[in-house]
Design brief:
4-stranded antiparallel sheet; about 35% strand; alpha/beta; Rossmann fold
Length: about 190
C-alpha cells in the first residue's frame, strides 16, 4: 500500500480516514480498563472473558495481556451489521461459548455498543446460563444511538454517530488491521 499519513487525514483503499484515537491513546485506555477489571476480580476466581467476534478480537487480546490476574477466554459470534454501515436491527447469535458459565464471573468484551440491541441479546442469552456475575466492557459506546436501555460497566471511549474503523472494527471486512481508530469519510453516497 503506497498511501502515507499526511496531516492526520489520508486515503486508505480509496477511503478518507480521519484518525480520532491514536494507538498510544488506545493502549493507555486499555491499560486503565484492565486495571479496573483487575481490581474488580482480585479476590475472586479468574473471570471468564467472553469476546465478541469479529470486531472485538484486537481489544480482547490487548485487554487480557494488560490484566495482571489470571483469566480464561472464549468468544461469541454475533451478526448485527448489514453492508451499509448501520446495524441491521436484529442481532443474530451465530456461535455461543461451549464453556460452562454457571456460577462463573463472566466479562463480555465488545468492540462497540451502537444501538445496544446486540449487547442486550448477548446479555439475555448469557444470564439464562446463570453466571455468578456478568460484567460488560466495551471499547466504544454511542449513547446517543442506543435504541434500548443498556447497561455497560466499563467504557473505553464515548462517540456520537460517526462510523469508526480500525483496531478490529471494519467497513465490509476492511480496516481491521489499523492500529488506531478513525472516522471513515466517503463521498455523499453514504447511507446513514
Amino acid at each position: 500500500m503506497s498511501d502515507v499519513v499526511l496531516s492526520g487525514i489520508f486515503s486508505y483503499q480509496q477511503m478518507t480516514l480521519e484518525p480520532i484515537y491514536s494507538q498510544t491513546a488506545i493502549q493507555t485506555r486499555v491499560a486503565e480498563l484492565a486495571a479496573s477489571l483487575d481490581n474488580r476480580f482480585l479476590h475472586s476466581n479468574p473471570p471468564h472473558i467472553l469476546g465478541v467476534l469479529k470486531g472485538g478480537f484486537v481489544f480482547v487480546a490487548d485487554l487480557i495481556r494488560a490484566m495482571s490476574i489470571p483469566v480464561t477466554v472464549d468468544f461469541i459470534r454475533v451478526s448485527s451489521y448489514g453492508s451499509h454501515r448501520q446495524t441491521s436491527g436484529s442481532p443474530q447469535l451465530l456461535e455461543l461459548p461451549a464453556t460452562e458459565l454457571k456460577d462463573r464471573d463472566v466479562v463480555i468484551v465488545d468492540d462497540i455498543v451502537d444501538t445496544g440491541l446486540t449487547l442486550n441479546t448477548i446479555t439475555a442469552s448469557l444470564l439464562a446460563r446463570q453466571p455468578h456475575s456478568l460484567t460488560t466492557v466495551t471499547l466504544l459506546a454511542k449513547p446517543s444511538q442506543h435504541k434500548v436501555n443498556v447497561s455497560i460497566d466499563l467504557v473505553g471511549f464515548k462517540l456520537g454517530s460517526e462510523f469508526v474503523v480500525g483496531y478490529g472494527l471494519d467497513a465490509n471486512e476492511t480496516y481491521r488491521d489499523l492500529p488506531y481508530l478513525a472516522i471513515i469519510n466517503t463521498p455523499q453516497t453514504e447511507v446513514r
